Amino acid sequence: MRPSGRHLSEMRLISIETDVTRHAEGSCMIRCGDTHVLCTASLEPRVPPFLKGSGQGWVTAEYGMLPRATHTRGRREAKNGQSGRTQEIQRLIGRSLRAAIDRNALGERQITIDCDVIQADGGTRCASITGGWVALRLAVNKLLKAGDIVTDPLTDHVAAVSCGLYAGQQVLDLDYPEDSEAGVDGNFILTGSGRLIEVQMSGEGSTFSRDQMNGLTDLAEKGVAELVAAQKAAI
Amino acid sequence: MRPSGRHLSEMRLISIETDVTRHAEGSCMIRCGDTHVLCTASLEPRVPPFLKGSGQGWVTAEYGMLPRATHTRGRREAKNGQSGRTQEIQRLIGRSLRAAIDRNALGERQITIDCDVIQADGGTRCASITGGWVALRLAVNKLLKAGDIVTDPLTDHVAAVSCGLYAGQQVLDLDYPEDSEAGVDGNFILTGSGRLIEVQMSGEGSTFSRDQMNGLTDLAEKGVAELVAAQKAAI
Amino acid sequence: MRPSGRHLSEMRLISIETDVTRHAEGSCMIRCGDTHVLCTASLEPRVPPFLKGSGQGWVTAEYGMLPRATHTRGRREAKNGQSGRTQEIQRLIGRSLRAAIDRNALGERQITIDCDVIQADGGTRCASITGGWVALRLAVNKLLKAGDIVTDPLTDHVAAVSCGLYAGQQVLDLDYPEDSEAGVDGNFILTGSGRLIEVQMSGEGSTFSRDQMNGLTDLAEKGVAELVAAQKAAI
Amino acid sequence: MRPSGRHLSEMRLISIETDVTRHAEGSCMIRCGDTHVLCTASLEPRVPPFLKGSGQGWVTAEYGMLPRATHTRGRREAKNGQSGRTQEIQRLIGRSLRAAIDRNALGERQITIDCDVIQADGGTRCASITGGWVALRLAVNKLLKAGDIVTDPLTDHVAAVSCGLYAGQQVLDLDYPEDSEAGVDGNFILTGSGRLIEVQMSGEGSTFSRDQMNGLTDLAEKGVAELVAAQKAAI
Amino acid sequence: MRPSGRHLSEMRLISIETDVTRHAEGSCMIRCGDTHVLCTASLEPRVPPFLKGSGQGWVTAEYGMLPRATHTRGRREAKNGQSGRTQEIQRLIGRSLRAAIDRNALGERQITIDCDVIQADGGTRCASITGGWVALRLAVNKLLKAGDIVTDPLTDHVAAVSCGLYAGQQVLDLDYPEDSEAGVDGNFILTGSGRLIEVQMSGEGSTFSRDQMNGLTDLAEKGVAELVAAQKAAI
Amino acid sequence: MRPSGRHLSEMRLISIETDVTRHAEGSCMIRCGDTHVLCTASLEPRVPPFLKGSGQGWVTAEYGMLPRATHTRGRREAKNGQSGRTQEIQRLIGRSLRAAIDRNALGERQITIDCDVIQADGGTRCASITGGWVALRLAVNKLLKAGDIVTDPLTDHVAAVSCGLYAGQQVLDLDYPEDSEAGVDGNFILTGSGRLIEVQMSGEGSTFSRDQMNGLTDLAEKGVAELVAAQKAAI
């Protein structure tokens, strides 16, 4: 019944290829089915003004989509500025990753996670978070290996998946054909130990019940567990 | 234990004053404690390009905060452009209100809800949604009264409240002192009949459990019921 | 003969409500008939670069109009940037208020006057100046009361009124129906002692004589005297 | 007593050279002492949207200053956007010239007056108006000569001069050293027949009396008469 | 003597992988050593305004560099707007590709070539042109295969290479360490048949002779021939 | 056979008038036929951040075109931002002039060359470089005369000319009618001693041979020699 033929609670094929660019301190190409996101972590010896002298570090994120990542070519944001949607997504990625970082242990340095969508088929913000965590993990590993920090500032895995109501059914990991028809669309960000970091559920022109809210959260827990397993396998 | 002395599940005083401006087709000043938002509904005989000729209408929202609505003066967005936060909020308001509108019944016209925060003390996006629905209701009433439309396009009430973890406790309707210290912050948008429209829960640098998610949602249901009662009383 | 039925030299009803917001150091809602402007004064312990180390303070102003303050909804300036008209008005407000301030007595601090038009019916720049002065007065009073400054830096009242030629007659305090038809439109800013601060008279597609210039200035003197009386009553 | 050694009511040397560029329908270089402004009139077979189908024409103006027209190099507005001051000036130029144009006689076409300051020594907006009128006159003459219009749409001359209080004295046609020290600064735009189009008087941190207002207006009448004579001589 | 150990006239390893994204009508990943550029061709059934109704098509290009394609992270252009360098490069790419297109044979449609640098090591604009031509070729092939056009509008291959003076020697295909030290830097765009399309030679703070100009052009002819061979092998 | 009746290798009439504005440290009006560019050099006691403390100076350039410098009025860049073309040109001017400056001898100061096109008839970028060098020379002379620097930092003349293929013929110094029809268009920047600084040759929708490249470069050498002679005569 799903356009892809997947079972209701079946994830798309996950692939995480690490160290895909030469310059970044950490990087991966994450592929969740046909959604491909290049994630890089850049380490910089500076923090935003509000943290200067605090001894605390910062993790932030930026998100972009190549103009032809989508079915029809979109306008290049470099020419038109970031859309509200783009800003919303990059704020979400940064906030989610900061939930699993001990900023004192990181010390006064900033890690910027760039998530650039090379090809899109739904779920790009979730793939960005899952892949972004891998890039972050790799960059932090370099800091640990070099002895620049001694305590691991990463307190847990972070991964994200979308769930929604498609054709009246609760389904896991929506692809674009499902996403564009979904009655309810949710994004769930969880830790490796199954704690919730962020939940965003939105009736797209409709509403949903507490039971549906619970059912979708159950699905999300299953999906994130699989993503965390993939993260572990990749590193 | 709350800074305001309120009980854990106690809302702030709600006041909704209608028809506060001369020109708008619908308007109200909503006051949730010290958070005051002026909401106006403007009816325009046009729709966005993607709806031209569809026979369907559109509801959209814009949000702003006067520079000195807050403790310290903020920069005027007219000089600096809308922040990511502002865009995120106005997208949420519009999406939430559209969940309770029958766009075919509305016909090819647009209603723009402007939510301008006159004074802020936490919860401005929730107050904007609750007050924005009242302005929308009043504007639609004018259309019905004038015979411009015959079927009421508003299918239900829409109201919103924030809940969160403050000092380890689940509290309803966070004010600014609570909001700035909250470990988890959630915004819940529901209909008058108790259906969920949108849920946004975010660990602010921390995480939360399924039980806490449920507890906060219970509180939100209670709070929204009180807000809907206030909406009914106001009109 | 005037649309409102007023006599040629009759002002609209003036009302000045003070301390209308919690956070600002000074604030008022001024109502000149159906023109309502919220004026706040924000005190900040900094001055523009060109005054650093000079021992002198600064008073500046910003102006905005809520999108639906007018008959038909205007575009939100936060989305489009400030118009030339808006910049012209806020430069005028700041310049006018600085004419009655002793910047040495104020000391190295800045007071920003925000004038936000809640509802418009002509004469918004004049109402902003008259109400802005009240907000400024209240903020300065706080500084005096707290002993932060010892000499009152405010040297006089400042108030403003528009006069113009409507249907060939010299009229005082134009409302929107008059303003949009006026052949000549003037804005007069005066002190409490009747000195001129700024005069702007403009033939709107027409011209005027020295006699008319004098007649309108006479009217303005009468109107400003009434506004200053209202300022005194409000504080 | 004036830095330039001029008498109180003495204008700077005026020179108006016409037809200084090849492409524009009308053009002149106006020199008021060391203030040099290149004024061009461009005729375009279109009008702003609000005039489409009205049969009426439009005259508008744009103003700019070359970065090194001034003592110290200013920032290029093409890189930073037009300042509030620039917008205020170009609105004034357009408004002033429209006061002497019969838009029905002009027919549905637009004339854009570009005023670009090549060298500045005070009074650039006044020189722009005086020179802009000459460029407009020349462009209209072409229309008349070609038979595109039959009735002359220009109803009178338009010229402008500044007057102010310098060192306590009423002086005519302020240059930069005077302008930067003036206690009161006024710009007067008049027609060839001596009617007032626009008066802008501003106490620069000070105030002025009715008598001073009258005295400065007397000076302006004298100055504009000389400018109009120069316009007549140039064409 | 070259940092990479290459001979003076030795190109970097060239690799062109085609059809690397699902949605684009044509695409390739071109790798010139460590410079990797994703090139996509997007076909759209519209042309710029100046070609409407002409029966002619258009080829244009946009260029971007991911923030961490470089040694140190650059600012994201979506947040800051396109730099002058970016605009200069994308204008060059489009102009070069148009030199080998018969716009009448293409018909009234537009092909946009997006060149996004995934990893940079010098020569990104040349790689973009060489790879962009491959994406263009593939998109045009689809049009031919579908019978949408009958005459092949691509008249020849287009490829580009940089040459320069490094440590006093004429070298082919500069990588980043060479480029950042080069005394003269040239970009040569040629057709498959060896005709010149564009030559840009620039003394970077120095000058060069006619002999050096000729020597570098000889090198470029050799390099482009190898690139064209790689293009042929890839398709 | 040329529209102007000139021989194939005949330059337009060159005129360089120096010291045309009061305030700039160096200035000239250069006229190449009907192309007139005002060039000013502004000396400022600061350098860009990357040169602070280096003891080296900087030369940079900005370029603009008055809206009615052209046949039809263009949009004012102050209202719309600098076009890609404008940025490309001003980068070229700055780069070219820096090729003949000893930045250590200049010392830590910046000279900004402003090139503003008063009237355009093709070749504005070349005229800007040739005239810009004169303005630079004059400003440097002031520094030398004042004893602020002791070694002349200008190592040679810099001048530029365009050559191209017009109606199949190699022609020197294209004017607008030629430029808009040219099959190949080249800009050549050379020193007074005949060394090349920058060569830009572009097939405008066509291609060219090595022989043509050489022929056009020969013409450019002839043209620049004449321009350098004019520079020498002017100073």
Automatic annotation (TrEMBL), chains A, B, C, D, E, F:
Complexes and interactors: Homohexameric ring arranged as a trimer of dimers.
Keyword check for tRNA processing: yes
Stated name of the protein: Ribonuclease PH
Annotated function: Phosphorolytic 3'-5' exoribonuclease that plays an important role in tRNA 3'-end maturation. Removes nucleotide residues following the 3'-CCA terminus of tRNAs; can also add nucleotides to the ends of RNA molecules by using nucleoside diphosphates as substrates, but this may not be physiologically important. Probably plays a role in initiation of 16S rRNA degradation (leading to ribosome degradation) during starvation.
HAMAP family referenced in this protein's UniProt entry, alphabetically: RNase_PH (MF_00564)
Limits of the Exoribonuclease phosphorolytic domain: 10-139, 158-222
Annotated positions binding phosphate: 85, 123-125
Family: Belongs to the RNase PH family.
Keywords: Nucleotidyltransferase, RNA-binding, rRNA processing, Transferase, tRNA processing, tRNA-binding
Gene Ontology biological process terms from the UniProt entry: rRNA 3'-end processing; rRNA catabolic process; tRNA processing
Species: Palleronia abyssalis
One function term, GO molecular function aspect: tRNA nucleotidyltransferase activity
Catalytic activity: tRNA(n+1) + phosphate = tRNA(n) + a ribonucleoside 5'-diphosphate
CDD domains assigned: RNase_PH_bact
EC number: 2.7.7.56
Main enzyme class: transferase
